[in-house]
Amino acid sequence: MRAPSSPRDRLVFSAFFFALAHAIALWFVPLSSVLEARNLGWLTPFALASTALAAFISPMVSGALADRHFCPVRLIRFLCLSSGLFLFLTFEAIEKGWPSLAILALLQIQQLCNAPVWGLASMTVLASLPNPGRQFGAIRVWGTFGWIAACLVVSFILHADHSPLSGLVSAANWLAVAALTFWLPAVPPQAAPAPRRWTALLGLESLELLRHQRHRSVFLTAGLLSIPLAAFYPFAALQLRDLGIHSVSASMALGQVTEAAAMYALGPLLSRFPLQRLLLCALLACLARYLLFSLHHTASVLLGVFLHGICFTLFFIPAQIYIEQHIDKALRFRAQALLTLLISGFGNLAGYLGCGWLRSLFTSPSGTRWPAYWLTLSLALLLVGVYFVHSYPADAPQKDAPLPPKLP
After folding, report:
1. Is the pLDDT of residue 7 over 90?
2. Cα–Cα distance for residue pair 225/220, rounded to 1 Å
3. CA-based Rg of the chain, rounded to a whole angstrom?
4. How does DSSP classify residue 394?
């Protein structure tokens, strides 16, 4: 039995998610606009791809360490401090006009530090809650509020939608995130120390999970879905700019409004509907959003942004809760790392580079043909939905027994 979480614990968890999302959104949302303003727009796909490259390595290593060797809170604290330092150096390099390769190298190091943080934090909180399915949404929603606050700060207080100042302020915020880790509960390693093999160091035992049909369907769908979804933040922002919207970061925060509502509704939804139905609804919402973008009118694009919360909350948050409820605790952090690798690694790398290439294909001196761009990505989303419907076992019960880990 889990010990009940106290109101103080839930307050700390909420504050941590708020601060973490705030620090990330301060620089990530305006990044493409900042690079465009410095005549570095061509760097955008490669800068975004750095997040994917980092996800191939650091989450798996961190997950293995958290499962077997170290308290995850200590790892989170170190990674937050390192993220802040290298984010400062990255945006200082943009401000000072350093060579493009230096900017990308600094951003890549920052992403190696940043990539595991969210997954480690989510698993730490989920492991500390007596009823994750009902309680996690109301805590995780504070990350949404932090993201909204960051977008409003960038647009209306810092006036930094196109300025490296957004990244410099974010670097300072990472110090606050690191400070909050001193109040997070310690979660001891659940697995025995592993033999000294590179497969154990990289947490590759988690690949055993993909042999289980239901696990494979959820994990692979999440990775495939991330490919077309990678276009949302960098290119919806540019489309809004082309439509004459000046406060782009604040406009993109509309998606977090529905995200907050969906987070609060998540507990009741998970108790009333099977996981398959929620995931399918999320896929349909993703398709509807890109079809709205393809209309290329200010109202339709803003409505599409508004749907972001449903797309994100009904798929990726249940996927994290699925890990906590259906996968052996000895594999908890490595399973989250595998999900991060598929989403932020394979999915985002293919998505950022592929969606960037696709935009160049539909861009001429007269501008980007946004309707054709989003319709192409809508087709990709439709194919992902078809895969999920055919791969998810139709007769699966609401809850499986956890898959036993096959560890050395």
Report:
1. no
2. 8
3. 20
4. T
